[in-house]
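pasting for ref
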Amino acid sequence: MTTASLDGTQGYDQDVEAFFARADAIAFAEKYADVAHLIPAAPAEILDIGAGSGKDAFDLALQGHRVLAAEPTPALLAEAMTRHAHPAIAWLDDGLPDLAATRARGQAFDLILLSAVWMHLDAGQRRRAMPNVAGLLADGGTLILSLRHGPVPPGRRMFEVAAEETIDLARAEGLEVRLHQERGSIQAANRLAGVTWTILAFQKVKSSTV
């Protein structure tokens, strides 16, 4: 299966210009205010899964991090590579649930971002995806994941995902909860529409030595 056929990308190749305008208007500091204390000091190895516009990857690169930006929607990936090019960012056509190309690199990451991505997967895909994501974390590494709740935009594929389910899947892979928070949407139109977010952060338990 090519990344272009991944279910969760549905609708994201439509009106790309408007998507970038919305995504790039959100300041990194505001978007990640709740988890800023969990982002490791630079330089860290960071994986941005579902990198979208590439702005998060770019902002992290400006902070001195090395970023692998994985995005399965060809139209978004091509535009992100143009708008947010940076020598510290490697771009990859890859996506959930398998992350085959990412895993093939054999790299471990200090931080993995799953920003507004997880709710695009159905229950079976989420069960398949969590071991693949957890397996990419370095010991002691952090996973930051956000879940969108509320009306689904036209043409998009989203599911209502409970925080408790996500926590259970993560714990089964040796990830401990570091943060569980609920908040309203940063975007005014979404906030008025009743969109809310769950912010979760997990840490991979370090392997014990004998």
